[in-house]
Amino acid sequence: MPHWTELLPVDRYKVQTADQLGEREHKTLQLLYQPLIGTKAVSLYTMFWSRLEKDSFTSSESVHHELMAMLNLPLDDIFEARRGLEGIGLLRTFQRKEETSTIFVYELQPPMTPAQFFQNDVLSVFLFNRLGRNRYIELRRRFMMESVDKEAYTEVTAAFNEVYTSLHHSEMVSAATDTEAEYPHAYQGMVHQGSLPFREEDFDFELLKADLPVFMDGDKLLDEHAKAVVQRMAFVYRLQPLQISRIVQRSLDDNEKLDEQEFRRQVQDWYRNENGNEPPALGRRTQPEEYRTMNDKEPADDNDQMAVFCEQTSPVTFLETIADGAKVPQADVKLVESLMSDYQLQPGVVNVLIDYVMRMNNMKLNQNFVQKIAGQWARKQINTVKDAMQLAKWEYQQQKHRSQAKAAQASGTQPRPYVRKDKLPKWLEQDKQNEQAKASGAEDEEKLNKEKQQFEEMLRLRRSSRQQ
To answer: Which residue stretches belong to region Disordered (predicted)?
Structure first.
């Protein structure tokens, strides 16, 4: 979706928070969140943070044009950075439409504590994949607190009622009532619970419940907290409802409730048995079934064959294929995983983007160029391989026309036919060949018409001479 349909420079905004942020949150953002969401998103969060005066929970009103000037970023980059913050749970956005503009309220959410972050099934795995094992372990150790064997000590902490005198009941009731009447919405402190926003429709809980034994109450067993845990683990470890059902049944406590720690352990054991000790990687995933368009179809041409290959191949395998089986650089692996995690592109769409960029850029994955295209495709909500190929073809034609116009403007002459020296993807070359075939066909038809006219004229002259 284009950013200008959602956000304009004249739109107003203000920032709110229900909790004060400090140095610890700043370090967590820089060291743990930034590798996942990028510098632009962190800069936007910090700018919102700076809009809050000391001990203030709400900022004054401003416009997005001022935000663009302060960050030195175009509005589409700010829009993408905002979505990145929303997706990872650092920002909630509210809007109110008015006659001439829209006003937004940006509610800052505090980052997770380091302990919550490293215990989170999604973020910890993403950080591991983004930074690599050594840097990940180094960061984790930095935030670890040395444990103390409390069994060897005797606790001597004073209790509240040993230190403070109690109030009379009448005093407590009066104070509480007066405060609540004067500040009915005050002190709604916000503590990050270590959760990330997921859409429930992305996982089929009804199928999971249906597969449970009849003596289990699925609705009671899978309460909101249990569903959040199941959805996180299913997302990271790519588990289907029927696989989750077996693991859930092995992870119940004595009260027939889901034991979260046991469930995590069971999922990780299952993953290790299936995939070894390597952490789950986004780059090894293939196009989800609901976004495949070539299932049960026989490829009719090179375009269809390319679509099938993109749908059935993971981005990392796709890179290995292009490199004739050679090891893919870790930087390229991280880049394609970023396209899936940060830009929410489907694996098959990433394959098309990779093929398009590498063929157009001398077999190099230029990060800035890739991310620029990824941002556009994400805004246009490109989810299928066919749509991605169609958009890439259109972009290629636009680039060709721009190059022709630029060359003509520089030389002061009419644009000459554009000839690209790079080897294009077959699915782009085919369209080019089709265009050439159409042009050649038109020339042949014109030539035949001309010869036909000449032949008819010759017959007319012969008839005329005979009559004479």
So the answer is: 400-468
